[in-house]
Q: What sequence folds into this?
């Protein structure tokens, strides 16, 4: 397979991912737009009747009081809408969904790169050099966030770990990832990752995917002495034997 064919395949894969991401974003935007229109319709209905009632009240209270009430109503609705659709709010449904789509797009694009590279083993062209350039600070931070976010699916977690193991070569970067994954694998009851104790699939993925990681080897040894499932103990023992850690 020559460079042009590889580039064409990667361009096709990127375009497919871009189209899928665009379609998902379009659907999300359309959904949010419809919800916003519904809010406006309800608001318009409420305001219409509020205006009718308030008009009678304002006949008694005077023009100044009416102006102040109208401003209060407008400010309340403005604040309500800003709170509901605030994209800067990390916990808003819109932001959570958008971040999830970006995480999936990043992992998919890097996963395609890894698969193309594996299929072209021995190719020394520029496209398959400088693997760490594929994982800049922003990409690495997003991948670490996928690992530490409880809501990340097991499938996304696994794909992200495959990508990291294949592309991350700088020792300092691998050490950061190794330490984070070791803490996740340990899942101590007093740590921020205690929820990992019930995520056996993710713990198995850590044991069987990330290679050449002493912090994970140490945790694997500890797991043999802990009340974990037989499957986890088997994976831990297999890792230790393969790495000749004992």
A:
């Amino acid at each position: 397979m020559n460079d042009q064919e590889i580039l064409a395949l990667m361009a096709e894969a990127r375009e497919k991912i871009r189209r899928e991401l665009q379609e998902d974003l379009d659907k999300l935007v359309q959904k949010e737009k419809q919800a916003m229109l519904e809010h406006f319709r309800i608001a318009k209905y409420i305001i219409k009747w509020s205006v009718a009632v308030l008009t009678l009240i304002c006949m008694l209270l005077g023009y100044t009081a009416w102006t102040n009430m109208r401003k209060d109503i407008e400010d309340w609705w403005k604040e309500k809408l800003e709170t509901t659709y605030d994209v800067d709010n990390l916990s808003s449904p819109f932001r959570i969904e958008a971040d999830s789509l970006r995480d999936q797009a990043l992992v998919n694009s890097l996963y395609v790169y890894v698969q193309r590279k594996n299929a072209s083993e021995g190719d020394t062209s520029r496209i398959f050099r400088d693997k760490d350039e594929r994982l800049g600070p922003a990409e690495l931070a997003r991948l670490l966030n996928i690992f530490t976010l409880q809501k990340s699916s097991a499938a996304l977690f696994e794909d992200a770990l495959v990508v990291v193991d294949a592309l991350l070569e700088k020792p300092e970067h691998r050490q950061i990832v190794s330490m984070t994954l070791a803490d996740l694998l340990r899942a101590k009851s007093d740590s921020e990752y205690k929820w990992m104790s019930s995520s056996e699939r993710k713990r198995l993925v850590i044991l069987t995917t990330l290679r050449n990681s002493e912090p994970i080897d140490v945790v694997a040894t500890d797991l043999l002495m802990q009340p974990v499932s037989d499957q986890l103990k088997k994976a831990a023992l297999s890792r230790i034997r393969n790495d000749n850690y004992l």
